[in-house]
Amino acid sequence: MLHTLHGVLTPSPTRRSAVSPERLDVEVGTPVGTAPAVPVPDLRDATAAAPATDPATGADEGADEGAAHDVSRTMDDIDALLREVCDDLSAGWATRVPDAVDVLDADLPETLLGWLLPATGKRLRPLMCHWGWVSAGGAAVTAEEPDPCRTEMVRVGAALELLHLFALVHDDVMDRGSSRRGRPTAHVEAARAHVQEQALGDPVLFGDSVAILLGDLALSEASLLVTETSRPVQLHWREMLRELVHGQLLDVTAAAARRRDVEHSRRVARLKSGAYTIQRPLVLGALVAGAPAPVTDALEAYGAHLGEAFALRDDVLGVWGDPLTTGKPVGDDLLLSKATVLLAEARRLLPPDLSERYLGRDAHITPEDVPVLQQLMVERGVLDVVEGRIDRELELALECLSQADLEPVGARRLQALAESTARRAA
């Protein structure tokens, strides 16, 4: 019996894998749809319009140096805590069953650290947590005794990074993603190791299993960090997790059902992307600072609109982004018929015959169709409509911010982050 690994025939689990690593690289590691036959649109010069914002700090040019220093310290402290978490994991792992790892190049704690550090992601969730904390009155770093409030904020920021890794790794398994942050996804790396070692069984199943366990471990450690925070933070964290899982389920089921209505796609994007990326981290930071309801309400409103802009930008980058910049394949959302707002608008705006052919219930998009559909969506105004939605959500987010009673330095950084997040190229 033979099993299929992205088009590669591999032996059944009762025999050793005969797939060459080189062949696996070609079939699993090459992003689909990355060479469109049409010019990539300029995204209406969106990224060129973004303010000069340091992605590591969220500080705009000319901003207060003290505030930029504080957020840099926060990111450094988060990295140090993540390293401490992984070191603690490794110590326990080695004590439990020494030298027990087979097939893989490294055991899970080391792999976890390799995905977390050095920081190759945007660190957007910890940034939002930090500036939510500052906006609600979080104190600056001083040379005096450590501030318990700030220590809690750092714990939440580290937990958010672990949660994000959990979500990415599991999402890549579900979507059969081939690359992430410019490297093979966790399940692809593990599958390649299986083939390289000529191990027994199915390399696809092995890779998926290792990746799922890696994500589980990240979620477990994130949850442990949050247990040492205040009750309001824990309750908000739990709600964020429920939203994330619910959104991911809706993403899977909507794709299976070929849902193409805009409002449903917006709800999916809010739950699985916008809320846990922008809105919830902001409010978590504010709750750590002991923010009153008017402040958390204002940040929640701002975060809802910016979160939607973030998710819409993800849709655009998923179809027209540069893989060398995003670190992810382009065109996968099309091939997987994802329930995105972009595809819902395409279903509405494309001529009926083309809409049915490419986006109908019985449609099957191939890699060769990707550049054609890219071109059609530009010509028929789909990109313009989605860019208009991004502009509107950004405008509403900034309006919420202008009406909120926040610490001035925090409000300024959130304004800069809103602009750079909505206009980002990765």
UniProtKB/TrEMBL annotation:
Pfam families: polyprenyl_synt (PF00348). One of its GO terms (molecular function) is prenyltransferase activity. Its cofactor is Mg(2+). CDD domains: Trans_IPPS_HT (cd00685). Residues 1-68 are annotated as: Disordered. Coiled coil: none annotated. It comes from the Bacteria. GO terms for biological process: isoprenoid biosynthetic process. The keyword Magnesium applies. Keywords: Magnesium, Metal-binding, Transferase. Residues 28-60 have a biased composition (Low complexity). Belongs to the FPP/GGPP synthase family. PANTHER family: GERANYLGERANYL PYROPHOSPHATE SYNTHASE (PTHR12001), SHORT CHAIN ISOPRENYL DIPHOSPHATE SYNTHASE (PTHR12001:SF85). This is Geranylgeranyl diphosphate synthase type I. It comes from Terracoccus luteus.
